[in-house]
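note to self — DONT lose this again. spent like an hour looking for the file last time. sequence + predicted structure for the chain T wanted, 164 res
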Amino acid sequence: MQEEALKAAGATIIRSERKSGTTTSGRTELATVMDFLREGDTLLVTRIDRLARSLIDLESIVAQLRAKGAYLKATEQPIDTSTPAGRAFLQMLGVFAEFETAIRRERQLEGIAKAKANGVYKGRKPSVPVDKVREMRGQGIGASTIAKQLGIARSSVYEALKDG
């Protein structure tokens, strides 16, 4: 749906990736687009939360665009950084996007705490078989060998031994 909306809005090149907008790290398509943009170009998105959910990341992206002489425009929101009103609205929406992410995280932590209190949530299963590590170490097997045989990092072996 987003690609169709971008085409309908006149986008000539469309790049997409299935990554969270909560951070810019690891977003190779975003990096490619940012490198590709030239003066007078417009980065077109459907909504700014598709681009960034952190106000710091959003401001960084907009600053990079500004430095290149490029603009940001959203198809579903009145955002166009080539106008003062568009820039102001962008900043307001950025604040709300970050607020929404923080509220969602807060609710998630509350839900986890409640599930733990009710004995429902136990966390993920341990990835390191601590008893097996200790047993092997007790047999005189070295940390590197234990790590190889169990398919874990050597540092995990030391961590398992440290706790006991």
